[in-house]
Structures are given as structure tokens and as C-alpha cells.
Amino acid sequence: MGNKVQAMPTLLAGLRERLGALRPSFGRKGDDDGSHRVPVRDWVPSSSRPAAVHGIDRALIWVVVGLLALGLVMVYSASVALPDNPRFARYASTHFLTRHVVSIVLAFVTALLVLQIPMSVWEKWAPWVFVAALVLLVLVLIPGVGKGVNGARRWIPLGVMNFQPSELAKLGIAMYAASYMVRKMDARENFFRAVTPMAVALAVVGILLLAEPDMGAFMVIAAVALGILFLGGVNGRMFFLSVAVLVGAFVLMIVFSEFRRQRIFAYLDPWNPDYAQGKAYQLTHSLIAFGRGEIFGQGLGGSLEKLHYLPEAHTDFLLAVVGEELGLVGVLSVLAAFFWLTRRIFHIGRQSIALDRVFAGLLVQGIGIWMGGQSFINMGVNLGVLPTKGLTLPLMSYGGSAIVMNLIALAIVLRVDMENRAMMRGGRP
């Protein structure tokens, strides 16, 4: 009996320890008097409770910074010899590097400002962002307003940079489609009510982009719009019918356009003497660059194809320079970074929808389609998997408006993630 009495304090201490582990935690919000305490919603042992979620997604930020840094280095490497070309004779060897740095700094400042805007504001103004994109797509076609380069009128000169309205249109269509699906949630099973308004909006954008012409941007925008419709729950048969109609439209564009038809033939047989020095010139030299790079590359700055053999090496075909100088290792690293980034963006979007924030979730997933789809097309073009299209590699290629809109879109993704984390802590977004 005496031993049992002596053991009681030990048993009580153990019981108090176990009850303490099961006790709900409280996060203080305000003064230390505990008057503003937010209880954790579930009662679980402290040893099995996941670590507190707070702050922002640092991994996503570092991947983006890494892609921007690599892009900056490769843009300089790809453009340093351009002043040797009479077309760029008046430029310094650091001309494109300097402008790219200015674009990145401007993009970071703009992204920090966008990060402060709540998603409720974006949801309210989503249709107007789309309207602004349409207005700019019209303005760029007006002589004296839009700037033409190589037969295409796609830019509006702004002094610091040439702004490309199609980049804003990518974000605008993502916002409009996400807003539309939230507003018309009850009409998802009705084909004409659910699809027709989006089809009209997409047709207007397509007509304006094809007038520039910029079929590559239209393909990305169409993929974003259809992807959001599908993720928003539109009937599967209706979705596949919409895809079939869009693919049919692209086929008709190719059939009735001699220029596009020749590009397809050149893509199918790039080494044909009829195409190697014409429509397939960029593709053949891109493939030569990848071949020279082998596993570990020729070393940074060691590319020969950038020496006036590969046109647009600092924009559309930057990955070919990466392949030649950094080899298969460099290309796979870039591919892995974009795969991880796209997957992470989709994860944030799914998380937002699970928290019943449908607009934010669909918008983020639309941005994921934009980033992943455009990077896939650019890489496919560089590697000869897809026909040549005038699309840059997001976050890496030279292009001020593209860098700015990429970082604005990713700032919105970070904002959604921050609001998701706040809700999971029991607070308000």
C-alpha cells in the first residue's frame, strides 16, 4: 500500500503531461493578456499536429528568382555579340542586358504593389481588366500608335519599354473566365448559357490577335480560357466539343494561309534544302545548338550559334543557347524548374477552391496553364517538337512587358497563397 501511495504523484504527473499534449493551442493576436485568442480548430496531440503555416511560399519565390537570374545571364550571353550585326551597330554590347535589368526591377516593384491588393478587389474588377486588354489590342493596330517589327504590329512604345497588349490579354482572359464561371455557376450544364459568352469573348480576342498577327499568343489565351471552363465544371461533352471547334478553326487558318502552311511543311522536314535556308532556318540552327551542347555544354559564353546564325537567340530561342552553353544538364534544370513551378501554382489553386474561394482558385489555375503551356510551347519549338511560334520563354527570355506581366501574375498567386494560409490559421483572407 505504501508503494502505491508513493507512485501516485508520478502517475498524476504523467496524466497531466498527456492532457497538456491534447489541450488546444491558442495563437495570440494582439496584447499579451490573451484577450484576443484564436483557438486551433482540431484537438490532436501536439506531437502529430503539423507545423504552423505562416508567411509566404519561399520555395516558389526562390524558383522564380532563380529562373530570372539564369535568364538575365543567358540574355546577356545571347545578345553580347549582336552589335557586330549592322542592324544593331548603334547598340552597345550591354544594351539588351541593361534594358532587361530595368524590366526586372520595374516588374519587381509592380509585383510588390500587386501583392498588396486583396483578391476581393481583383474579383470585382476582373471584367474591366479584360476590357482594358481589348482596348489595348485595338489601339496596337492603329498606325502611329502600334509599333511594327518584322511585319508584325504587336507593341505600343512607352519610352522605358515597348508594351505588348497580348501579355495583358493573357491575364485578362484568365480573370474574366474565372469571374464568369463564378457568376454563371448554375449554368454549367447548359451549353449555350455556359459556353457562348466565353466563345464570343475568345473570338473577339482571336480576331484582334490574328490581325497583328500573333497566333502563338492566341493559342495560349485559348488554352487558358478552355482550361478554366473545364476546371470550373463545364459539362465534359460540351468542353470537348469546344476544343474540337477551336482545333478545327486552327486547321482552317493553316489551310487557307500559305505562310502558315509553309511553316508546317518546314517543321515536318526542316533539313529539306527548300526549307533549311528559309522557313526552317531557325529550327535547324536551334537543333545544331542543342547538338553542340551535348551533356555539359560548351561553357558559358561558348555558343557559336548566337553569333548571327540563330535569329532571335535572346528571345524566342533562348533555350537553344542554354542547351549549347550549359548542355543537357542546363536544359533539364530549366525544364524541372518550370515543371515544379506549374505544379506548385496548381496546388495553390486547388487549395483555394477547397477553401471555397472559387474565383481565386480558378484564376491561379489559369495562370498555371499560362506559365506551363507557354513554357511547353517554347521548349517544344526550340527542340523541334512543335512548329515555330513567336512565343518567349516565361521569366527568362528578353522582353519587358512579358517579364512585368509574368511577375504580376505570380504576385497574384502569392497573394492567393497568403490568403489561403490566413484562412487555415482561422483568420480572414
Automatic annotation (TrEMBL):
It is found in: Cell inner membrane; Cell membrane. GO terms for molecular function: lipid-linked peptidoglycan transporter activity; peptidoglycan glycosyltransferase activity. Pfam families: FTSW_RODA_SPOVE. InterPro entries: Cell_cycle_FtsW-rel_CS (IPR018365), FtsW (IPR013437), FtsW/RodA (IPR001182). Its EC number is 2.4.99.28. Its main location: membrane. Keywords: Cell cycle, Cell division, Cell inner membrane, Cell membrane, Cell shape, Cell wall biogenesis/degradation, Glycosyltransferase, Membrane, Peptidoglycan synthesis, Transferase, Transmembrane, Transmembrane helix. Pathway: Cell wall biogenesis; peptidoglycan biosynthesis. It catalyses: [GlcNAc-(1->4)-Mur2Ac(oyl-L-Ala-gamma-D-Glu-L-Lys-D-Ala-D-Ala)](n)-di-trans,octa-cis-undecaprenyl diphosphate + beta-D-GlcNAc-(1->4)-Mur2Ac(oyl-L-Ala-gamma-D-Glu-L-Lys-D-Ala-D-Ala)-di-trans,octa-cis-undecaprenyl diphosphate = [GlcNAc-(1->4)-Mur2Ac(oyl-L-Ala-gamma-D-Glu-L-Lys-D-Ala-D-Ala)](n+1)-di-trans,octa-cis-undecaprenyl diphosphate + di-trans,octa-cis-undecaprenyl diphosphate + H(+). It comes from the Bacteria. The chain crosses the membrane at residues 59-80, 101-119, 125-145, 191-209, 215-232, 239-257, 317-341, 353-373, 393-414. One of its GO terms (biological process) is regulation of cell shape. One of its GO terms (cellular component) is cell division site. It is a multi-pass membrane protein. HAMAP family: PGT_FtsW_proteobact. Peptidoglycan polymerase that is essential for cell division. Belongs to the SEDS family. FtsW subfamily. NCBIfam families: ftsW. This is Probable peptidoglycan glycosyltransferase FtsW. It comes from Aquincola agrisoli.
